[in-house]
Amino acid sequence: MEQTQTPSRFSASTRGWQLPPRLVILATLAVAGCVSTPSVETQAPAPSTIAINPERAQSMDVEHSQNFARWVADFNTAAHAAGIDEATLHTAFDNVRFLPRVIELDSAQPEFTRAVWDYLDSAVSTERIARGQDKLLQLRPAIEPLAARYGVPAEVLVAIWGMESSYGSFVGDIPTIDALATLGFEGRRADWARGQLLAALKILQNGDIDRAQMIGSWAGAMGQTQFLPSSFLAFAVDADGDGRRDIWGSVPDVMASTANFLERSGWQAGQPWGIEVRLPPGFDYARADADVRQPSEAWTNEGVQAMDGTPLPELANGSILMPAGARGPAFLVGPNFRTILRYNNSTSYALAVNLLAQRLANGPATQAAWPRDLQALTRSQMLALQTALNARGFDSGTPDGMMGPATQRSVRRYQRSLELPADGYPTLNLLQRLQ
Fold this sequence. Notes:
The chain is mainly alpha-helical and 435 residues long. It has helices spanning 21-32, 62-81, 86-93, 100-105, 110-113, 116-123, 126-150, 154-165, 176-186, 190-206, 229-235, 251-264, 296-301, 335-343, 347-360, 379-391, 405-417, 428-434, and strands at residues 8-9, 51-52, 97-98, 174-175, 215-216, 274-278, 305-306, 319-321, 330-333.
């Protein structure tokens, strides 16, 4: 996690840096919007004092600082109109900080920028499996009743816990309010961040947590299983009965909240997430598509087999997943795999959670080899690939540097035009041929 930085005051000198008096006045006016005091009937919450990261003070010009101050003041007004009281607004924004590193991290998420095998090497490491099994042994009496209540296996809950905070050992250290204010002001998903920020203010106002303890990731996810504020409002559970929904410090609350999220997002009790499979010779790789769903019996009739030769698990609408293309492992996945995608919409993440849960239950590791000689495309290379596909008439949608269904299908169409296996997997060689 990115470390936060000690702020300096926008309205006074600190650490040897000071705005000229004239610019202090201009900045104050930018926050307040005007010099006159509104009437009592229309008065907005008092303007916040904006603090700026001192290490960035020289590179952030005064105009940027003023714009952030103005944005916070405007958001204050909107939040007050949405029902947030002035005490909560002062608590949240009196020392709010713009965090430049948050913007940088927003464009470098490992689930989307690393090869799936590299991601899984760390996500499902031997150490993480061993620690998870120890946690299960220690906490099973507390976790099992919650798992049974919501129909979600304890191993799945512990796997998410391990993925998100290394079993509660690190919940992040970035103030949620600061992270979301930064993303709302300058991020690529400003409207989304504003909505999450308003949800965070509601959590503060409800008294579930105070501002100093409301910490998490650069993206605003909080607690031991990294709930976004909107998810907290919708799914967090007070399982220990202390009157607070504490996903930062209470393991029962963490487990019940996570299980409640999954159950209400479509988890099907008693069904497996999926299974590693062996595809038959001549398999049409274009059928390895999330939208191609059919019962396990139909896949069996096409020659798809479990790696150990046992019957495929009964899935009413299973699909074939080939996360590394034709040269890598293949999986038959069902509704519960797709439910994990609602928790984090990354195939690598969902695969890691399910494989980790499988190992925690003493199940097998992935058996087929990963094509480790292939080089994963960087985000800029993926952007170039999408742009080149569009230029050739293979519509991949608006280029964004992220691999999604539209890009996968456009890659397949291009591969077919070259009479290559249409697995939809983007490679450096494919990009070079396009260029």
